[in-house]
From TrEMBL:
Organism, as annotated: Latimeria chalumnae (Coelacanth)
Compartments reported by the entry: Cytoplasm, Perinuclear region
PROSITE patterns, A to Z: TPR (PS50005)
GO term, biological process aspect, one: skeletal muscle tissue development
Keywords recorded for this protein, A-Z: Chaperone, Cytoplasm, Developmental protein, Differentiation, Myogenesis, Repeat, TPR repeat
Protein's recorded name: Unc-45 myosin chaperone B
Primary location class: cytoplasm
Keyword Chloroplast: no
Residues covered by the UNC-45/Cro1/She4 central domain: 329-487
GO molecular function: Hsp90 protein binding
Length: 676
């Protein structure tokens, strides 16, 4: 057995050599080896000194306290605890410790100087504290006084928000009954007051687990959800930020180091997190929730449910959502705005639900989990089919569309369910415009590469052409046109697999550009026109015509700046096609010769896909300028701006910066910041 004194001396040598980690190891080892109280006191005191050097102040205070328990007059331990407590902001406790030190050694100048400094700091802190308390009180008086003028209220609200974002200010608001007063502000029903209260609560919850938990229970999850359910975009966005601040604090995502009381409080946050998820899922299917509120509930689920790192084996949150909320998400994805029973939704709601479905499916770890996901989807869709209720059938097909926009492979399997394709064909032949609209959109989403959707590619063209000729509704016409565009590009960039006769794709593109440039068309119709171009610009002739059409380019870029972010993927795809910045598989001559010999199909490149033509297209200054302006203005703040959209934007960046003369212009527009 080793001698604890010898191990202690070894630790002292490490300490003198500034090797504090090894010193701590030695002192810890010696503590385990000895039962002598006097030696233990010295060891804890020495280890406290190491923690002080490492700036681990909570551990330093803890070890110094243990040394003081052994010997209450250990002046070194008392002073070390004083130093640690001062660093974590506990000035009153630090003052008491140095006061005892000064009593034991009254002639020690270090103790006397520390005593004076701490006394001054405490007085200053009290002055600020009382000043802050009075300011907080005054702010609430102005905000809750009905007779206060508008300008004073706005100023008080802004000051309160700023104060709540500072840790000391947030604590003063919390200690001065601020949460109850903020709830009173919410209950005034005044949008400006609600917005200020929610933003202040969000600031108070950020980076403080104990306070976030207390606010969650004092305000109540039900009340927070009811605020987010309101039909006010700014309020729902602020409430979403409040929920995110609470979730981050509960899970430790805020990355803030806690000391003292915050560190000592052990909280089981899993129950609160589960309750929040349950309430968010309940919001999805509620008619009382606004479209903005539903979007924010989906955004929170998108951000917080799937694992951040797929190497993490714990996907329990995803499994919980699949078991208790998948049908609610499918219900949102299956909403049709033009029907009277539709839930309140925005342009982004259904696509955000599809994004969530995709993320949940990708987060599953094994086949049994994916089979369960598929089973729930199948049960939900087949349960909607009803020969006597056409609206339920519409919801079933719309739900299939939502899954096709999310986990496509699963959506393709759902297309194989008995009755799905038959129902789509029946809806195409219906006299009702809404039936045709839903069926055409489903066909568009089901159409993909020839190898993955043979039935749709083979039979879809005749169905869509028939609808296009018969309908007089512009909304249906544009969708059938996009369907034809997508089916026409099903062969990808392979010139030999083009689906239509020479010149047909240019005619389709011309019609798409016509709708895109028509200001009389609504945004949704123009959005579909861009989607059509995203498929057709695979053709080199269409690319050249589109880049030359300045009004069409301008119309597309203006559309991308609107609040409807579902357009961004189509715009990014169009730009990738126009710049030929997609990945091109390397052609190996030997394999081409082998394929020809065995009479296999060999992909053909369009004559205008050569490097010189692409470079000439990029040389058009207006194209490079408008493209860079658009991508420099994008921010990844919405789940709809997916990884693939961002990837496409990066590919376009590479293309437009190939010419060094364009780089300065792009940097000036903020391109460097976007890339970073």
């Amino acid at each position: 057995m080793e001698d604890p004194i010898q191990v202690k001396e070894e630790g002292n040598k490490y300490f003198q050599a500034n090797d504090y980690d090894n010193a701590i190891q030695c002192y810890t080892k010696a503590i385990k080896l000895t039962k002598d109280k006097k030696v233990l006191g010295v060891l804890y005191r020495n280890r406290a000194a190491c923690h002080l050097k490492k700036e681990s102040y909570a551990q330093a205070a803890s070890d110094a306290s243990r040394a003081i328990d052994v010997d209450a007059s250990d002046v070194k331990a008392l002073y070390r605890r004083c130093q640690a407590l001062e660093k974590v902001g506990k000035l009153d406790q630090a003052f008491k410790d140095v006061q005892r030190c000064a009593t034991i050694e009254p002639k020690n100048k270090t103790f006397q100087e520390t005593l004076r400094r701490l006394n001054n700091n405490i007085q200053e802190k009290l002055r600020i504290q009382f000043s802050t308390d009075s300011r907080v009180q005054k702010m609430f008086e102005i905000l809750l006084d009905e007779n206060s003028d508008k300008e004073k209220k706005e100023k008080a609200a802004n000051n309160l928000i700023v104060l709540a974002r500072e840790d000391a200010g947030a604590e003063r608001i919390f200690q001065n009954n601020g949460v109850d007063l903020l709830v009173q502000m919410v209950e005034t029903k005044d949008p400006e007051m609600i917005l200020a209260a929610v933003r202040a609560l969000s600031g108070m919850c950020s980076g403080h687990r104990a306070r976030a938990t207390a606010i969650l229970h004092l305000v109540g999850i039900t009340r927070i959800c009811s605020i987010m359910a309101t039909d006010h975009e700014e309020i729902t966005l602020a409430t979403c930020s409040l929920f995110q601040a609470i979730i981050d604090s509960l899970s430790g995502e805020d990355k803030k180091e806690h000391h003292g009381k915050e560190e000592a409080v052990v909280l089981d946050t899993s129950r609160d997190a589960k309750i929040i998820i349950t309430h968010l899922l309940e919001m999805l299917g509620s008619k009382k929730v606004s479209g903005y509120g539903r979007d924010q509930a989906l955004n929170l689920l998108n951000k917080n449910i799937p694992r951040k790192n797929l190497k993490d084996p714990d996907n329990s949150r995803t499994l919980f959502v699949v078991d208790s909320g998948l049908k609610k998400i499918l219900k949102v994805g299956g909403q049709i705005q033009d029907l009277p029973d539709c839930l309140p939704i925005t342009e982004n709601t259904c696509l955000t639900a599809s994004v969530l479905l995709n993320k949940l499916y990708d987060d599953l770890r094994c086949d049994p989990e994916r089979d369960e996901f598929k089973k729930i989807c199948e049960e939900y869709i087949t349960g909607k089919f009803d020969p006597h209720n056409m609206e339920k059938n519409l919801h079933a097909i719309q739900t299939v569309s939502a899954v096709l926009q999310g986990p496509f492979d699963l959506g393709n399997k759902l297309l194989g369910l008995q009755g799905v394709m038959e129902m789509m064909v029946a809806l195409c032949g219906s006299e009702r415009e809404i039936d045709q609209l839903v069926a055409v959109e489903a066909l568009i989403h089901a159409s993909t590469k020839i190898s993955r959707a043979t039935f749709v590619v083979t039979n879809g063209v005749s169905l869509l052409k028939d609808i296009y000729k018969k309908t007089k509704n512009e909304k249906i016409k544009i969708r059938t046109l996009v369907g034809l565009c997508k089916l026409g590009s099903a062969g990808g960039s392979d010139y030999g697999l083009r689906q239509f006769a020479e010149g047909s794709t240019e005619k389709l593109a011309k019609q798409c550009r016509k709708w895109l440039c028509n200001p009389a068309c609504d945004i949704r119709t123009r959005k579909w026109a861009v989607e059509g171009l995203a498929y057709l610009t695979v053709d080199a002739d269409v690319k050249d015509d589109f880049v030359e059409d300045e009004p069409a380019l301008k119309a597309m870029f203006e559309l991308a700046k609107t609040s409807d972010k579902t357009i961004l993927y189509s715009v990014a795809s169009t730009l990738v096609n126009c710049t030929n910045s997609y990945n091109v598989q390397e052609v190996i001559p030997e394999l081409v010769q082998l394929a020809k010999y065995t009479k296999q199909h060999v992909p053909e490149e369009h004559p205008k896909h050569i490097k010189a033509t692409t470079t000439a297209r990029l040389k058009r200054r207006r194209f490079a300028n408008k493209t860079s302006t658009l991508i420099c203005n994008q921010r990844q703040t919405n789940p709809i701006l997916s990884e693939m959209t961002c990837y496409f934007i990066c590919r376009v960046f590479l293309a437009v910066t190939e010419d060094s003369k364009d780089r300065g212009m792009i940097v000036a527009q903020g391109g460097g910041k976007v890339i970073l």
